[in-house]
Amino acid sequence: MAGKGGSAVNRRSSEEVDQIRVLLRARFEELDAEYEEAVAQSHRLRLVEIGDSAGDDQADSGSKTAERDAAGSLLRTLLDRRTQAEYAMQRLEDGTYGNCEGCSNPIPVERLEVFPSATTCVNCKQVRERRAS
């Protein structure tokens, strides 16, 4: 358990680490598959656009641009989530998973259950968000 100064690292049993590793790996693989499918869909959308743009009016062009923007946004979101899962797996291997990067205290299990890739406790997350705004 971490002390008030946060210098002690929250130690997990090898069974807990293995269980977390399996969950993070499954999450990463799920996100990776979603990302690859979104890339393929985006590619198909572009091929259809290239072959089907003759005679487009402004509304058609605007609609296609909106679809392309939405596809790009989805790709960025999936890539970000996949990267977060990958980073969480690296932190698990390093022995820092589950401890806040801001204060070094353990991140509550309830937060990790909802957001397994969390790198900060709720308090440090709120402080970061206030500084960013």
Automatic annotation (TrEMBL):
InterPro entries: Znf_DskA_TraR, Znf_DskA_TraR_CS. The keyword DNA-binding does not apply. Residues 52-71 are annotated as: Disordered. A zinc finger (dksA C4-type) spans 100-124. Transmembrane segments: none annotated. Keywords: Metal-binding, Zinc, Zinc-finger. The keyword Cell cycle does not apply. Residues 95-130 form the Zinc finger DksA/TraR C4-type domain. GO terms for molecular function: zinc ion binding. Pfam families: zf-dskA_traR. This is Zinc finger DksA/TraR C4-type domain-containing protein.
